[in-house]
Write a structure and sequence with these properties.
InterPro entries: Beta_helix, Haem_d1_sf, Ig-like_fold, PbH1, Pectin_lyas_fold, Pectin_lyase_fold/virulence, PKD/Chitinase_dom, PKD_dom. It comes from Actinokineospora auranticolor. This is PKD domain-containing protein. The protein folds into three domains: 391 residues, Methylamine Dehydrogenase, Chain H (7 Propeller), CATH 2.130.10; 82 residues, Immunoglobulin-like; 157 residues. It is an all-beta fold. It starts with 6 loop residues before the first helix and ends in a 5-residue tail after the last strand. Helices cover 2% and strands 46% of the residues. The longest helix has 19 residues.
Length: 850
């Protein structure tokens, strides 16, 4: 993802070269103190520092650390990328994606489901490629929320690359190119067919921000529409590396011990330049020079294409063997993600080193880390270092993983700012405000910063608590950074300062922020918010009557009780610490936090909602004729009915459902992950692309029902079904009604009638797979349940389908079930082998179990 460098970026790059050249002349001089400069995005790169679980922002001009932002636990397995000044950290092992605002260091996090997920970043959005399921999803690059419907990937994703605005995918099965972009309604794909017919292994890269396709003996520079702008002849071998130039319509081909640069303006490739043994990290082509790692992993080779000469840098350290090269804003960095060491390499071979953080944690094995915490960003400044580093793998340019370090001590204790507390919660001008915080761990340093609405500093403090009063109304930002050795955390909140509040009356139109000083009981409408950015702090009081936000943005209602309906029609509304009867949302970017509601509905126009740490006791619905996206995280739903009709992409994560029901009807792309369902059920009707993963189901009659066909492309994996009558039922009455549905890696135990049942009323290939599941002790309390043919349902897996149904059964493990481990009509399923049975009286029927 790159476009033509701006004039500002060129200026930064030239300034960097000037600084580096001057530093080379002053040999042996001590590094200068860090220079205080405006925090511009140009010339800065986000690098992974896995040992401390941070994404580190490095200034390549000053060669110093700007900030370290926690994104994972120590020794996490994440990689980093960026768009402009915004950074991203993605842990493929856990699916955790963290976005970092380049200006404020504020974070947003989401967890992506699905396997074999790759992420690609553009200025329009983040694209998630699930190659195994053949699905592409788009995320808003600021909120990280899904946007629009999922799209099908080409049959064969042979290669991909990004430019400034699009993801380009080459399909080797038919020679086509598809450009995916993200618009207001979601992702769209533009396909160009027969671009490289007959070539099964094309290459894609990006040169000067434009896609380059290399296939069938020629290279093609493509336009934004997929048309071929220029071509040249080039032969590429299976093991050759192809990488586009940063600043020119050219690319480098590295093969064996030599390389060549191909230039679209010259329409030819240059002479071969011998470089000898080199490392496996991808090269960088910038300013007519090729940077690549050397064979022993301790130097950088710089090949000058003008003179066909090769320069080797000095050793980066006495012990480094493998590292990564990262280019950003015309600056070339080396980085070791596993340790503190990184630096900048100039075109003349000068090496400037820095340390990304100060104190190493106790050495532990380099393994995938825990789920990233929700801790806020950390801001810190470092000096250019003179210590040598151990560069290793960075996602930006590929590379190789450094060897693991053996465990030798405990992990560092956690340090996190849990909550910033202000008293009063809604300050008034000229009234003292007390600031304090709830913090996990033992900070040794505190730094408070209060910023005015224009971004300038209002007040600072280095104490654990402090007091301040404000002279003017407005939105202020309060940041707290804490540290203890190398551990740091930061949190930022918005504080609304208001004028002394006026009394409120029934039917008032509120046009400025205020605090309710007494209960308000109304026969009809209570209050209407009639302006943007109005906060109403109920201060523990109760409003009887309806509250309406009349097409105004930035409204905030908090800290009290509303015995009536709240209607939100406007963007950016916030409901915090509120008890209410009914909430209706028809605006975008709505957040409900730490609240309790009987009924919540997201209606037409409502999108990008997030409900967190809240309780719902009646009903929740989200869906309309227009696409909408949203998320519910960390909530408790008690006796509630959840309905998701229409074109809704909703994510339900880490919630607890108690005696609740969830119904998805004509829904697409909903994700239900890591929830607890206690005596609760999920039912899917005529839906597609739904993911149920990592959930726990218990105490229900039928915990999950997929029926009323079609319900296609459903993924059910890594769930636990225990103590239900039937854990999972899959039913279809039309051919291919469960096409591309996959049930894998689930655990079914102690379910009364069966762990899972399948009932297909119409013959036809289903392309449905049941693989790698465990069925233990099911069917011992079937209560006479039978299938449509009168056969008893008292098995681990019970399948009732016609011959030729096309259900694929593979590698399932069954033991101690009441009758069969797996029971299916003979010839009705496809036995892919690997199934086992132990302690099942009737063994298996319809498949072979060993």
């Amino acid at each position: 993802m790159r476009g033509t460098p701006t004039s500002a970026q060129r200026a930064v790059a030239l300034a960097c070269l000037t600084v580096l050249a001057a530093a080379a002349v002053i040999a042996g001089a001590d590094p200068a103190p860090p220079v205080v400069r405006p925090d511009l995005f140009a010339g800065k790169v986000w690098l992974p520092s896995r040992a401390v679980g941070q994404a580190t922002l490095v200034d390549g001009v000053a060669v110093q650390v700007v900030a370290g932002v926690p994104v994972a636990g120590v020794n996490g397995s994440f990689d980093t990328d960026q768009v402009g000044g915004d950074g991203y950290a993605f842990d493929a092992a856990t699916g955790q994606l963290v976005g970092i605002d380049g200006a404020t260091r504020e974070k947003r996090a989401t967890r992506l489901s699905g396997r074999a997920t790759d992420l690609r970043y553009t200025a329009t959005g983040v694209f998630s490629l699930d190659r195994e399921r053949g699905v592409l999803r788009a995320l808003d690059r600021h909120t990280l929320q899904p946007t629009g419907d999922a799209l099908a990937l080409p049959r064969t994703v042979s290669a991909d690359t990004t430019d400034d605005r699009a993801l380009w995918v080459a399909d080797g099965s038919d020679g086509s190119i598809t450009a995916y972009t993200l618009g207001a309604t979601g992702p769209t794909g533009r396909r160009t067919e027969h671009v490289f017919p007959g070539e099964r292994s094309p290459r894609l890269t990006s040169a000067q921000g434009a896609p380059v396709l290399v296939a069938a003996g020629r290279a093609m520079l493509l336009t934004s529409t997929g048309a071929v702008a220029r071509t040249l002849s080039v032969e590429i071998g299976a093991g050759d590396v192809v990488q586009g130039a940063v600043d020119a319509p050219a690319f480098v081909v590295v093969r064996g011990g030599s390389l060549t640069v191909c230039d679209f303006e010259a329409r030819a490739c240059g002479p071969e330049i011998a470089v000898g043994a080199h490392g496996s990290a991808k090269p960088v082509l910038l300013g007519g020079k090729v940077f690549l790692t050397d064979g022993d992993g301790n130097r950088v080779l710089i090949a000058d294409t003008a003179t066909a000469s090769v320069n080797r840098t000095e050793p980066l350290s006495d012990h480094v063997r493998r590292f990564d090269l990262v280019e950003h804003d015309w600056i070339v960095y080396f980085n070791d993600p596993e340790t503190r060491f990184a630096g900048v390499i100039s075109p003349d071979g000068t090496v400037r080193r820095l340390e990304k953080y100060q104190d190493d944690p106790p050495a532990t094995a380099v393994t995938p880390g825990p789920t990233p915490t929700s801790a806020g960003p950390t801001t810190r400044t470092g000096q250019p270092g003179t210590s040598t580093g151990k560069p290793a793998r960075a996602r930006t340019t590929g590379g190789t993983m450094a060897e693991s370090i053996k465990p030798s001590g405990p992990r560092l204790p956690e340090l996190r700012v849990e909550e910033i507390v202000t008293n009063p919660a809604t300050p008034e001008v000229l009234v003292p405000v007390a600031f304090s915080a709830r913090v996990t761990g033992a900070p040794t340093a505190w730094r408070w910063t209060v910023s005015k609405p224009d971004g300038t500093t209002e007040a600072t403090s280095t104490g654990a608590e402090f007091s301040h009063w404000f002279r003017f109304v407005g939105k202020y930002r309060v940041s707290l950074a804490v540290s203890a050795g190398s551990r740091r955390d930061e949190q930022t909140v918005t504080l609304m300062v208001i004028n002394p509040p006026l009394p409120l009356h029934c039917g008032d139109v509120v046009r400025q922020s205020t605090v309710l000083r007494a209960n308000l009981t109304c026969e009809g409408p209570a209050l209407t918010i009639g302006a943007h950015d109005v906060l109403i702090d109920l201060d523990g009081h109760t409003v009887v009557g309806d509250i309406k936000v009349d097409n105004n943005d930035g409204s905030v209602l908090r800290r009290g009780t509303v015995q009536g309906q709240i209607k939100l029609d406007g963007a950016g509304a916030r409901i915090e610490d509120l008890t209410l009867i009914s909430l209706q949302v028809s605006g975008s970017d709505t957040r409900v936090t730490r609240s309790r509601a009987e009924h919540i509905s997201i209606v037409t126009g409502g999108s990008d909602y997030r409900i967190s740490d809240s309780v719902i006791t009646g009903s929740f619905s989200a869906g309309s004729s227009k696409p909408s996206v949203g998320e519910m995280v960390g909530c408790e739903l008690i006796g509630a009915h959840v309905g998701l009709p229409g074109r809704t992409h909703s994510v339900f994560r880490s919630n607890v459902f108690r005696s609740a029901t969830v119904l998805l009807s004509q829904s697409g792309g909903t994700e239900i992950t890591n929830n607890i369902f206690d005596a609760s059920t999920v039912e899917l009707r005529i839906s597609s692309g739904v993911i149920l993963a990592g959930n726990s189901f218990g105490g229900a009659d039928v915990a999950v029902t997929i029926d009323a066909s079609p319900a296609q492309g459903i993924l059910i994996e890594r769930n636990t079904f225990e103590g239900n009558k039937v854990g999972l039922h899959l039913g279809s009455s039309v051919p291919q009604g469960l096409r591309e549905t996959r049930v894998s890696g689930n655990h079914f135990e102690g379910n009364g009638a069966a762990g899972a049942t399948v009932s297909l009323g119409s013959p036809g290939p289903e392309s449905m797979t049941i693989e790698g599941n465990t069925f233990v002790g099911n069917g011992h309390r079937s209560d006479g349940l039978v299938d449509r043919h009168g056969l008893a349902i008292d098995d681990g897996l019970h399948i009732d389908t016609e011959v030729g149904g096309g259900v694929e059964i593979a590698s399932n493990s069954t033991r101690n079930n009441a009758d069969h481990g797996i029971e299916a009509p003979r010839g009705a399923v496809v036995d892919l082998g690997g199934n086992t049975s132990s302690g099942d009286p009737a063994g298996c029927t319809g498949v072979v179990c060993r």
